[in-house]
Amino acid sequence: MNLPKEIVEEINDHELYLRKINSDDIEFLYNSLGEENIIKYMSLGPLYSLKQAKNLLNKYLDYWENNKQFNYIIELREGQAKNKIGVISIWNISWLHERSEIGIWMIPSHWNKGYGTRALEMIKTISFVYIELNRLEAHIVDQNQSSNKLFSKSGFKKEGILKEYINLRGKYYNAILYACLKKDF
């Protein structure tokens, strides 16, 4: 597979937007990735300073420029108001095998309102239609009931359990492997 000529930097459903992460998002990353209930099942975080958030953002922008990873802010727009509510990412991309992993996190005040499902639908559109990947995967900690439910109801199929696959702050967790294929989109 050839690398895409251009990656979609923004997509929306008229209320919920996915847009390329940018320098205006440093404070949002810092504030969000310091919250225990957000990072509980993530390898990332906590962030202890704005400098760490800036370094993370610069890494994300470098990954984007080198077609290694694409991070999008999930933004809720109501009238003129723009509220950042999370991040969704296409990462660990194999251009040869036309597959990648995806990950999503949102701030707790926006959990269980359907925004995660909508964001996953948009990231599938970017991945399958624009980037032309064939397969998306997610490795979800088995104890993360909310994420397991989200991926199940968003058309991802459970393919197996990976024993002691994820090490979070010194403790190993099983991961449930979810996948979605382009032909099923």
Description:
The protein is of the alpha+beta class. It has a domain at 10-134: Aminopeptidase (3-Layer(aba) Sandwich), CATH 3.40.630.30. Helices cover 28% and strands 37% of the residues. The two termini are 20 Å apart. 30% of the residues are buried.
Short description:
With 185 residues, the chain is an alpha+beta fold. It contains 5 helices and 8 strands, in the order E-E-H-H-H-E-E-E-H-E-H-E-E.
Characteristic terms for this protein:
185 residues; Aminopeptidase; eight-stranded mixed sheet; 28% helix
Mean pLDDT: 95
Terminal-residue CA separation? 20 Å
What would you report as the Rg, rounded to the nearest angstrom? Answer: 16 Å
The low-confidence parts are none
Apparent shape: globular
- Summarize the main sheet: 8 strands, mixed
Q: Helical segment tally?
A: 5
Tell me what portion of residues adopts beta-strand conformation. Answer: 35-45%
Describe the secondary structure blueprint for this structure.
Layout: E1 10-12, E2 16-20, H1 26-32, H2 36-39, H3 50-65, E3 70-78, E4 81-94, E5 99-106, H4 115-130, E6 135-141, H5 145-153, E7 157-168, E8 171-181
Parallel strand pairs: 5-6
Antiparallel strand pairs: 1-2, 2-3, 3-4, 4-5, 6-8, 7-8
Helix pairs in contact: 1-3
